[in-house]
Amino acid sequence: MTIRILLIDDHTLFRSGVRLLLKRQSDFEVVAEAADGIEGLKRARELRPDAILLDLNMPGLSGLEVLQILSQDLPDCAVIVLTVSEEGDELAQALRSGARGYLVKNIDADALVAGIRRAVEGEPVIDQGMTAKLVEQFRNPAPAAGGADAQRSKLTAREMQVTQLLARGASNKAIARELDVSESTVKIHVQNVLKKLNLNSRVQIAVYVVEHGLGPQ
């Protein structure tokens, strides 16, 4: 299967470098580039790529604004934020807005390639340093509306286990192994969690866990 990729970034030299890197992969095809958010949205709607690498800081529409529109127009597309920002707030906003991944531009080539493939498969992809910032928030979670106990009551005990493992970035296979159940059972639990919490993606589950203090007790 060929993974069709759109690049949205206002730095021409950076786009050129990423394009050359991705062209070395036999299963990647860079279908287009865009230098701003408006052009990026136009290309995304026309070409419907499998993955989009999206910068946050661009003239005109910001990356977050583009992301919010893309999550509505192309919900199945794996949008990966690729940015210089290492701010936890921007990470959280991107995940809330529907990003499937958040990577920092100093990432090495192999990690970027692997991250794109994982995101297209439906896994959340977060830069290791940014993941550490999310984990740190588990230690001092913000109080949840109605309290953490009220949030926990929405889920069964098994769904809570799945939710906490998802928040750590675990794949379905890893969760199945951890809980000694089949991957198909894990998929059912994931769908139930998304429905009960009114969320759209696995990465949004990670944000929800942190914001509502649902880490392991």
Descriptive report:
This protein has 217 residues and is an alpha/beta fold. The protein folds into two domains: 3-131, Rossmann fold, CATH 3.40.50.2300; 140-211, Arc Repressor Mutant, subunit A, CATH 1.10.10.10. 53% of the residues lie in helices and 13% in strands. The protein has helices at 12-23, 37-47, 63-73, 88-96, 109-120, 128-139, 148-152, 157-167, 172-179, 183-197, 202-211; strands spanning 3-8, 28-34, 51-54, 78-83, 101-104, 125-126. Strands 2-1-3-4-5-6 form a six-stranded parallel sheet, with helices on both faces. The termini are far apart. The model has no long low-confidence stretch (mean pLDDT 85).
Main beta sheet: strand number and arrangement? 6 strands, parallel
SSE run: EHEHEHEHEHEHHHHHH
CATH class of the largest domain: Alpha Beta
CATH fold label of the largest domain = Rossmann fold
The helix content, as a percent range, equals 40-55%
Q: Strand arrangement, largest sheet? A: 2-1-3-4-5-6
Number of separate domains: 2
**Amount of beta strand:** 5-15%
Give Rg in angstroms. 17 Å
Q: Report the end-to-end length measured between terminal Cα atoms.
A: 42 Å
Query: In terms of per-residue confidence, which ranges show pLDDT below 50 for 5 or more consecutive residues?
Result: none
Q: Give me the number of helical elements.
A: 11
> Overall mean pLDDT score?
85
Per DSSP E runs of 2 or more residues, the count of β-strands stands at 6
| CATH second-level architecture of the largest domain | 3-Layer(aba) Sandwich
Kindly name the structural category: alpha/beta
The fourth-level CATH homologous superfamily of the largest domain is Response regulator
